[in-house]
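Severity: low
Component: inverse-folding endpoint
Summary: output formatting inconsistent between runs
Steps to reproduce: submit the following structure tokens with default settings.
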């Protein structure tokens, strides 16, 4: 990723915090929410690892292939889960974006992130449009959210059962993905 190291560290912090929160969301009583939270956690931690500024750590050449394989498998898993509906199609697009960035970095001279080309511009442009739209839609969905109705009163909903927090999680990762694609 190009740009100042401070923006790289900010992306690392946001993505790692989001991944950690998604691990908490996996404690939900609802199977579908646990599955979606697991996919979000993988994306959050993967994005955090890829956003580490190159001045601190430049991964070896094989790491980009490893990222591509990891996110390719995550995308296939999400594609399989998408047949039942839910949030999985967004995970497929997110995994495809991560594979795209990994392949672009693997093919760049010197294999150093932040020093590669922009990849195939049409694909990068389509991914940028998708994530810009996703951030706008997800942000708009966040505005009218009301407090969850729980039988035990306010605060009875667990960490994994708060839809507004899950939306904030996805919104922050969408913004981070947009930034990573933009600075690629």
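Observed output (run 2 of 3):
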């Amino acid at each position: 990723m190009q740009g100042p190291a401070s923006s790289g560290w900010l992306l690392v912090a946001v993505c790692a915090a989001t991944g950690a929160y998604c691990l908490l969301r996996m404690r939900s009583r609802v199977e579908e929410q646990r599955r979606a939270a697991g996919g979000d956690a993988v994306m959050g931690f993967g994005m955090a690892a890829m956003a580490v500024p190159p001045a601190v750590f430049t991964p070896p050449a094989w790491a980009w292939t490893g990222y591509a394989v990891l996110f390719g498998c995550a995308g296939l898993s999400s594609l399989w889960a998408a047949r039942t509906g839910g949030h999985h199609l967004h995970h497929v697009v997110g995994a495809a974006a991560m594979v795209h960035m990994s392949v672009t970095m693997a093919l760049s001279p010197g294999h150093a992130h932040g020093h590669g080309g922009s990849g195939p511009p049409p694909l990068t442009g389509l991914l940028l449009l998708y994530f810009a739209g996703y951030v706008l839609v997800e942000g708009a969905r966040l505005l009218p959210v009301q407090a969850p109705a729980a039988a035990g009163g306010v605060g009875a909903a667990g960490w994994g059962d708060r839809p507004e927090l899950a939306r904030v999680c996805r919104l922050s990762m969408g913004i981070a993905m947009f930034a990573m694609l933009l600075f690629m």
